[in-house]
Design the sequence.
């Protein structure tokens, strides 16, 4: 005796957020039932394991049928197959496009290609995110990337409109797309300590400040500028001695990074450069975050004092971003 | 040229990719009506084509307008090969044919393909211009309104109820024609869908003609069914109640005075025709035909006890009505709820079953055989009703179960006496109210009083004086197929009661098979009834409403499922308990027995608590009204001493015992008792019923969730016993209920209403159960307050509320006859009615009638309900929560005739749709469950889209009539047929009442505007 067929269909589509999350997380039906049992749903309504299994299957089927619609969320609103209240639709989309920071950290800056997709099982093993969930997240990145790639206008806004995502999520996707597009190097050991949110923040800075207009060469006049900065710092920090010693190197590092930005290939190394040329030296000198802030603020401002420095606007644009990136990245 | 049909194809969206190379589609549309076809231009390379076509105009007879659907086919243009079909939309234009309904159909329709399901959507506008046609001999019946609802629709008033209408049409099933061997499954499915659509249209038109003939303008309680007889053809049949309905001006609050006034009518009811022996019909000669002995629940007497009907008045009545009746007319009503005061007395359930062998229908234009079969059964029902001293059958329904060439036809209803005042011609406004209160039977108990003469009762029944009025006799138990009358006084809450039964039978062919089945039927009925009775007592209740017994036949088994809503009527005596007895008084296992007895008593106590059954006993004893026959037995279940006494009577008719005695003489009996106790009560916060209104709950809030669930069980165990099967079947039903409770737990406190279970045996080892129901939330606090009141008060207040809301109802039975006699009839019958079963004569008849057996059963009918007053506005709800991006109208669906908290301001027409879905890639679609899941979701979507296109926002009285599922996993194939129906309506929130006058008007004029769903 076995249940051959078992379906339950509501006029208003019935969805349980908990089950949806389990589905998104790539649990099999049986695992999901186990999790739910442990969660104590059984006590409600005197449910048995069979009831849970049947309910979970129904919902998994519903989600699978919805998945096609979730690929172009705008369709969800005007499709006729499922009657889903608007707030539920928003929840469905938001959760479907949500991702694990640990997972995205692994693919950040990689090409969203088939090759990368093949490596997902390694990433799955490493991050302990299920392969199914990895695939969904990866496909989401790719889908968003593909749609947005060809569109003009502000990246974040495009993503939000096409995928009906919340502002926060749209920004994260913008970061992912931006990284994938520019292929920033994020996988080096030295960058491992940085979280996705660190990168997302930096990406936000880069997108809003650098994506329109080129970055000029600013190497000239830097030496003079350096001399101007130093005196203004004197006496304001206790690590001044070390700072003084490393100042030249740091300054040169920043300038070099700026210079490299003109070359697309070198742009990839932006973050690694920041870490190697600036953050690591500072860290070895035990600068506090406050020291760092002080230094960069004065360093930026002192450029204005230089009469000969002709690129004030560009300089501000550059340093504004670098400064906020470094602040964000300067932690353990 | 009586009509011009205009259609415009606006646009498509979400079309499937038909050209792999470009990932696009070159779509165009064919619009077909009758034999005329138009085409749109090809819209190249687009998945969201904009055709914006001209208006395609069809000039057609209104006969065709009624029969034919508008067919819209979306195709992909292909230069070099045949164009590929993307899918189709069938639009039933019937709703456009009567003025009060929709004036335009406009909106997005899912494009449906029988192989691929929904493939995108198409926006269509359809209009009809009708010219007046005064031709008296016309074949069309445009303008007759159809309602699935089994009460008088909310915004109408019945000025006249004409009575029963029925019709059936037959055809060959395209799936069984020779051509089917060479055409594709798609072509075959489409031929079938088209044919059925045509046949339903034709059927509706023919019924409409009958209604016009009778002088009516509407059919209420329209019930259409398909019999897929396989080789022998396809039968579409329908029954309904013809009425003359007046539209109420929508804003005006119904007032009680108008309510009473316009009653004019005669009764067409039929006491005349003598029972004629059914089997004599020669037409049947080539068919094997068996019927099963009569069995009437709750009152019995078909045996033809002349004495019972012999009163001189009755005779007079008969003579008079006789003339008014033609032989084919039946005093049947498919309605299940009635305006207050309409229903005088209820006799009990009458039912008939008959087993037939199907034979090819030789002449589809003259489906005499099928007509004769039903005629036969209806005659039987009529004679049973008469035997119960009743002149009408209410809550009437018919059904079939087919397996190979065997077909069981069933009909059931509730014998009743209707108020003669409502049948009198030319009724008066004056003093009606007074009359009402002069009546001997008060509204909240009157319907329980037995309609027949207690001295001539053909069976021993437990009659007592009504616990309410003390003037008339009532039975101890009452079974009916109707809804609980709103004015009835009840104690506590109701609950769903089910009896389930499996019986194995040997595989056989032809007549042997039919005989085997008909031999089994009476035993099944008997057992189902016993189960129902036991379960009723176990819940400490004394009446069943909405009783529906389905017997489904398979190759090697019969399934029986009886569902009803149990309730405690305060007018009836308190139910006795259940007494367990050993085979002999001094049985060895007395300890065991007493432990079971204890469990049963505990269960009864728990159930009393659970359903809040606290009849106002104290009050009554305080009054000290005389109960002439002290009912010593009512406490009997506590006293062992009397048990043996009871036992002696057991064999004759244990159905009417107060204290129900269960004899444990073998393991079977123990099993039975266990199975009795298995039924788990619903979890806290849930109630369930299968009727329209939940006894004891009326303060609904706005949460509504309609659902359909299908479960198929494969019995792999080859040598199952009846017991084992019963257990499996019971568990299947119980588990389904448990699943519902779990899934809907977020709606607590809530009630599952109109739980409609359908069982089938699609293949030898499969059992299929299909359930459609609606979960509705209610306000717990208020309920408690309400129930805290005395039940009587509550009954009355409910009643008056009802009167106010429905007051529009002056129904009348039939217009013609003059009625003084009928009135007298009612006096006679005003005596009492009883509920009990007579199995006494059962055995004899069983043997004597073996060849022509006739079974009777019961069936659920849907009833009416009024809406409760508090709730949120549906419409404002939709508006407020719909973000601008949402263009899809929210369409609520419910199997009930109302949506809580809303008021229906307009009926837009009947929805009656038939779909076939087939797949040859079952695994890829997620197996059988995935396949059916998406199909049901698609059916819902198509119903919603049609309603939205009519300008509506809800479907009431929704039902899934048919869900036939066939699979062949080895071939990776499956096929499913679904038939759904309901009434499309516009409803507005009741909290909008203030503005309702204006909204209603705009609703009428503007409601039909396109919902513009772009």
Sequence:
């Amino acid at each position: 005796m076995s249940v051959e067929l078992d379906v339950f269909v509501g006029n208003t589509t019935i969805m349980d957020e908990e089950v949806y999350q389990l589905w998104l997380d790539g649990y099999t039906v049986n695992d999901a039932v186990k999790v739910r049992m442990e969660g104590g749903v059984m006590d409600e309504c005197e449910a048995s394991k069979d009831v849970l299994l049947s309910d979970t299957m129904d919902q998994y089927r519903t989600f699978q049928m919805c998945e096609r619609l979730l690929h172009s969320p705008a369709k969800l609103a005007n499709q006729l197959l499922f009657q889903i209240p608007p707030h539920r639709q928003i929840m469905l989309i938001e959760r479907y496009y949500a991702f694990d920071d640990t997972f995205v950290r692994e693919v950040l800056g990689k090409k969203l290609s088939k090759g990368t997709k093949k490596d997902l099982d390694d990433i799955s093993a490493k991050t302990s995110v299920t392969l199914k969930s990895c695939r969904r997240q990866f496909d989401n990145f790719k889908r968003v990337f593909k749609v947005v790639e060809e569109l003009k206008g502000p990246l974040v806004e495009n993503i939000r409109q096409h995928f009906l995502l919340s502002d926060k999520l749209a920004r994260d996707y913008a970061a992912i797309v931006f990284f994938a597009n520019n292929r920033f190097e994020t996988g080096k050991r030295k960058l491992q300590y940085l979280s996705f949110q660190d990168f997302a923040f930096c990406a936000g800075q880069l997108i809003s400040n650098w994506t329109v207009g080129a970055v000029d060469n600013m190497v000239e006049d830097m030496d003079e500028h350096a001399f101007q900065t130093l005196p203004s710092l004197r006496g304001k920090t206790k690590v001044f001695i070390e700072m003084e010693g490393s100042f030249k190197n740091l300054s040169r590092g920043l300038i070099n990074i700026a210079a490299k930005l003109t070359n697309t290939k070198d742009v990839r190394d932006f973050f690694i450069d920041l870490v190697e040329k600036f953050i690591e030296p500072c860290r070895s000198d035990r600068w506090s975050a406050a020291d760092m802030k002080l230094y960069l603020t004065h360093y930026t401002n002192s450029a204005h004092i230089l009469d000969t420095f002709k690129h004030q606007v560009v300089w501000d644009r550059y340093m504004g971003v670098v400064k906020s990136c470094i602040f964000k990245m300067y932690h353990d | 040229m009586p009509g011009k049909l205009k259609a415009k194809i606006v646009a498509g969206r979400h079309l499937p990719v038909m050209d792999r190379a470009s990932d696009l589609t070159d779509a165009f549309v064919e619009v077909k009506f009758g034999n005329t076809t138009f085409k749109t231009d090809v819209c190249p390379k687009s998945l969201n084509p904009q055709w914006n076509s001209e208006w395609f105009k069809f000039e057609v007879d209104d006969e065709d307008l009624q029969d034919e659907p508008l067919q819209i086919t979306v195709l992909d243009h292909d230069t070099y090969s045949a164009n590929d079909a993307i899918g189709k939309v069938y639009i039933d234009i019937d709703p456009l044919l009567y003025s009060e309904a929709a004036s335009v159909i406009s909106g997005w329709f899912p494009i449906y393909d029988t192989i691929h399901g929904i493939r995108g959507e198409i926006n269509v506008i359809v209009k009809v211009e009708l010219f007046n046609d005064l031709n008296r001999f016309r074949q069309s019946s445009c303008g007759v309104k159809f309602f699935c609802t089994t009460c008088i629709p909310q915004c109408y008033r019945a000025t006249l109820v004409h009575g029963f209408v029925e019709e059936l049409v037959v055809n060959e099933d395209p799936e069984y024609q020779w051509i089917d061997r060479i055409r594709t499954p798609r072509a075959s499915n489409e031929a079938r869908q088209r044919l059925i659509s045509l046949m339903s249209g034709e059927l509706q038109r023919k019924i409409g003609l009958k209604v016009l003939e009778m002088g009516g303008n509407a059919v209420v309680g329209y019930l259409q069914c398909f019999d897929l007889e396989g080789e022998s053809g396809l039968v579409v049949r329908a029954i309904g109640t013809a009425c003359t309905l007046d539209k109420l001006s929508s804003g005006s609050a119904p007032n009680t005075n108008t309510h009473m006034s316009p009653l004019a009518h005669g009764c067409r009811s039929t006491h005349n025709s003598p029972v004629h022996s059914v089997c004599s019909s020669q037409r049947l000669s080539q068919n094997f035909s068996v019927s099963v002995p009569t069995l009437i629940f709750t009152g019995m007497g078909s045996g033809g006890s002349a004495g019972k009907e012999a009163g001189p008045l009755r005779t007079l009545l008969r003579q008079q009505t006789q003339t008014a009746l033609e032989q084919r007319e039946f005093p049947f009503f498919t309605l299940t709820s009635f305006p207050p005061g309409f229903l005088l007395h209820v006799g009990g359930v009458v039912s008939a079953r008959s087993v037939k062998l199907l034979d090819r229908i030789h002449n589809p234009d003259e489906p005499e055989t099928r007509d004769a079969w039903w005629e036969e059964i209806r005659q039987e029902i009529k004679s049973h009703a008469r035997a119960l001293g009743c002149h009408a059958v209410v809550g009437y329904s018919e059904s079939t179960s087919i397996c190979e060439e065997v077909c069981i036809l069933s009909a059931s209803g509730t014998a009743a006496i209707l108020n003669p005042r409502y049948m009198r011609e030319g009724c008066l406004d004056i003093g009606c109210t007074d009359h009402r209160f002069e009546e001997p039977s008060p509204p909240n108990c009157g319907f329980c009083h037995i309609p027949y003469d207690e001295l001539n009762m053909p069976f021993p029944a437990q009659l007592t004086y009504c616990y309410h009025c003390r003037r008339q006799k009532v039975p101890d138990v009452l079974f009916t197929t109707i809804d609980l009358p709103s004015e009835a006084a009840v104690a506590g809450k109701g609950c769903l009661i089910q009896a389930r039964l499996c019986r194995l039978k040997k595989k056989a062919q032809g007549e042997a098979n039919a005989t085997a089945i008909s031999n089994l039927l009476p035993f099944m009925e008997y057992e189902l009834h016993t189960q129902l009775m036991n379960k009723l007592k176990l819940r400490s209740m004394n009446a069943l409403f909405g009783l529906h017994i389905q017997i489904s036949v398979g190759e090697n088994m019969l399934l029986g499922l009886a569902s009803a809503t149990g309730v405690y009527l305060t007018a009836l005596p308190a139910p006795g308990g259940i007494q367990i007895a050993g085979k002999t008084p001094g049985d060895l296992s007395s300890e065991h027995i007493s432990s079971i007895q204890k469990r049963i008593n505990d269960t009864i106590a728990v159930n009393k608590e659970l359903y809040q059954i606290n009849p106002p006993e104290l009050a009554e004893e305080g009054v000290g009204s005389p109960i002439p026959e002290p009912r010593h037995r009512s406490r009997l279940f506590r006293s062992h001493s009397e048990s043996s006494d009871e036992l002696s009577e057991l064999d004759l008719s244990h159905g009417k015992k107060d204290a129900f005695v269960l004899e444990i003489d073998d393991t079977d009996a123990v099993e039975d008792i266990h199975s009795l106790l298995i039924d788990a009560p619903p979890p806290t916060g849930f109630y369930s019923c299968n009727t329209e209104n939940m006894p004891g709950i009326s303060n609904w809030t706005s949460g509504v969730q309609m659902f359909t669930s299908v479960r198929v069980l494969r019995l792999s165990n080859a040598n199952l016993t009846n017991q084992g099967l019963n257990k499996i079947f019971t568990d299947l039903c119980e588990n389904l209920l448990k699943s519902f409770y779990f899934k809907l737990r977020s709606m607590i406190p809530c009630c599952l209403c109109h739980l409609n279970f359908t069982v089938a045996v699609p293949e030898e080892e499969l059992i299929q159960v299909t359930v459609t129901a609606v979960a509705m939330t209610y306000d717990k606090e208020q309920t408690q307050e309400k129930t805290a009141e005395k039940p009587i008060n509550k009954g009355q207040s409910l009643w008056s509320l009802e009167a106010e809301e429905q007051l529009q109802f002056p129904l009348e039975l039939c217009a013609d006859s003059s009625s003084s006699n009928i009135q007298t009839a009612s006096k006679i019958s005003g005596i009492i009615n009883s509920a009990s079963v007579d199995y006494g004569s059962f055995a004899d008849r069983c043997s004597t009638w073996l060849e022509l057996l006739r079974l009777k059963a019961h069936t659920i009918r849907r009833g009416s309900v009024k809406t409760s007053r508090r709730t949120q506005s549906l419409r404002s709800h939709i508006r407020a929560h719909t973000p601008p991006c949402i263009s899809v109208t929210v369409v609520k669906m419910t199997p009930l005739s109302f949506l809580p908290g809303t008021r229906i301001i307009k009926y837009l027409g009947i929805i009656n749709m038939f779909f076939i879905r087939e797949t040859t890639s079952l695994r890829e679609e997620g197996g059988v469950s995935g396949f059916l899941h998406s199909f049901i979701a698609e059916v819902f979507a198509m119903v919603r889209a049609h309603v939205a296109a009519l300008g509506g926002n809800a479907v009431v009285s929704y039902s899934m009539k048919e869900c036939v599922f066939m699979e062949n996993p080895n071939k990776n194939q499956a096929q499913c047929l679904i038939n759904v129906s309901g009434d499309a309506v516009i409803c507005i929130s009741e909290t909008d009442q203030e503005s309702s006058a204006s909204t209603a008007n705009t609703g009428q004029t503007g409601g039909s505007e396109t919902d513009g769903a772009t």
In short: The CA atoms of residues 71 and 249 of chain A lie 49 Å apart.
